[in-house]
Design goal:
Blueprint lengths: L2 E8 L3 E8 L7 E10 L2 H9 L10 E3 L3 E8 L10 E4 L9 E3 L6 E5 L3 E3 L12 H13 L7 E5 L3 H12 L3 E6 L2 H9 L3 E4 L17 E4 L7 H6 L16 E4 L11 H6 L3 E3 L6 H12 L6 H4 L8 H8 L10 E3 L2
Parallel strand pairs: 4-7, 10-11, 10-13, 11-12, 13-14, 14-15
Antiparallel strand pairs: 1-2, 3-5, 3-8, 3-16, 5-6, 6-9
Helix pairs in contact: 2-3, 2-7
Length: about 325
């Protein structure tokens, strides 16, 4: 059986490089040489702490987004050696949990977990396609229209991508974060972004009339009342209603959280909880990269070596991380 080097999480807190035996090539599958794999900071640091549902404190191979080239494929697939693919999941081997196992030099993948891509997309930011799809799904769920006002709260990786997608649709986007580096990163890409004050409503740049759409990418329950306060007020009783604001919970939460019912009721707020992405979101996100409607190069920076993973994850686990994410170069 083939073997591959890969990253292993040993929660809580340990990251290792090791070797792992890969499954034999089966029907509907392909062996892929990984070129780039990208970190999803929120999910993966939660896995590393042993707080991710479905994994908890179990040893696992992390990662759910990567770009690679097909080495070998079973005859019943449309894949062939040399094809460049994005893939989101690797197959389990050796009794180890894969979550979803894309941080590896080689991966055995099912055809259904791949998307063929052009060689022009052989670049580090393409490995973020799953997160682009997730952000695109949330924006689509909120039905953002050109000219509408959108507040994006939390300018981590998912917030940055959501803001850029909403702006590409013609929305008037304002981004908010307490981290000055994140604010500056959004501003460098043309987003009107502001460093959050004690409350969002009193932050410089906040629209006092409220927003049509609020995308909350913080994953912090304490932010929710402030985010709801940014929704538009409805007209008084017995007058024609305009559409209430839409609140998209794009952040990821390890535990339950609550809303103030009266606050939500008075604004007739629609609460939307996107669940991951669809294949259409993924392929459309890749098309946005292909057509240069979306540029994420300043979020990725230079690719890093997998052997530096421990220090990379240590940085990303800090509240004031120096980077938005990291892409591992396995080539």
């Amino acid at each position: 059986m083939p073997r591959t080097s890969c990253l292993i999480f040993n929660p809580p807190g340990r990251v290792e490089m090791t070797e792992l035996e890969l499954p034999e090539l089966a029907g509907g599958c392909a062996l892929v040489d990984t070129i780039y794999s990208a970190i999803s900071p929120g999910t993966e640091t939660r896995c590393l702490r042993g707080q991710q549902a479905g994994v908890m404190e179990q040893r696992c191979v992390p990662g759910y987004q990567a770009v690679g080239r097909v080495v070998e494929a079973s005859a019943d697939t449309d894949l062939k050696p040399g094809d460049l693919v994005f893939f989101s999941r690797a197959q389990t081997s050796g009794g180890l949990i894969f979550f979803n196992g894309t941080h590896a030099k080689q991966a055995m993948v099912r055809e259904e977990d791949t998307v063929k891509i052009s060689d022009s997309l052989n670049k580090p930011e393409t490995a973020l396609a799953a997160l682009i799809g997730i952000a695109l799904h949330g924006v689509r769920l909120s039905r953002v229209n050109a000219g509408e006002s959108v507040a994006v709260i939390g300018l981590g990786l998912l917030g940055q991508i959501s803001a850029r997608i909403a702006q590409s649709l013609g929305a008037k986007v304002a981004g908010f974060d307490r981290h000055s580096v994140r604010v500056a990163t959004a501003q460098a890409d043309g987003i009107a972004a502001f460093e959050a004050a004690e409350t969002l409503a009193t932050t410089t740049g906040a629209d006092k009339e409220g927003y049509d759409v609020i995308i909350d990418a913080t994953g912090v329950p304490a932010v929710i009342p402030q985010a709801v306060a940014l929704a538009r007020e409805l007209r008084p009783w017995n007058q024609p209603l305009h559409r209430g604001s839409r609140y998209v919970i794009q952040g990821s939460y390890p535990e339950d959280f609550c809303f103030n019912y009266q606050q939500v009721f008075m604004k007739e707020l629609s609460i939307l909880v996107p669940r991951d992405q669809t294949r259409q979101d993924l392929t459309d996100g890749l098309a946005m990269l292909q057509q240069r409607e979306l540029d994420l190069s300043n979020l990725v920076g230079d690719a890093v070596r997998p052997h530096d993973a421990a220090s990379v994850y240590a940085d990303l686990s800090q509240s004031r991380a120096s980077r938005q994410t990291a892409v591992f170069d396995w080539s």
